Amino acid sequence: MNAPDRYERFVVPEGTKKVSYERDTKIINAASFTIEREDHTIGNILRMQLHRDPNVLFAGYKLPHPLQYKIIVRIHTTSQSSPMQAYNQSINDLDRELDHLKNAFEAEMAKFSRDY
Fold this sequence. Notes:
The protein is built from two helices and four strands. By secondary structure, it is α+β, with helices and mostly antiparallel strands. It has a four-stranded antiparallel beta sheet, with helices on one face. It is flat, with a radius of gyration of 18 Å. The N and C termini lie far apart (47 Å). The model has no long low-confidence stretch (mean pLDDT 92).
C-alpha cells in the first residue's frame, strides 16, 4: 500500500541527528528533545524515568503524527537542574537498569541450561 517499509521506521537517515534539543523561550528551565525513529516504547520509558527525578517538574512526550517516526519529549525542571542534565541522567539510569536486567536474565539462563 502507501505505507513505507517497516525498517524505515527505525533506521535514521544519513545526515540526520538522532536527538535534537530546543530550549523553551517562554518557560525557564524547560526544553523539548526530538528523538528520531522512536515510538511510544522509548517515549513512555523515558517519561517514567524522568518522573523519578525530584528536580523534574514536568516530563511528557508526544508523537506528532503516526507516519512521522519521531517523538518529542518535553522536560521542565527546577532551578537546581537543567532539562539537559535531567535527560542525560535519565538515559544513564535507564542504561544501568537495562544492563542489570540483561545480566540477571543471562545468569538465570546459564543456571537453567546447567540444570538441563
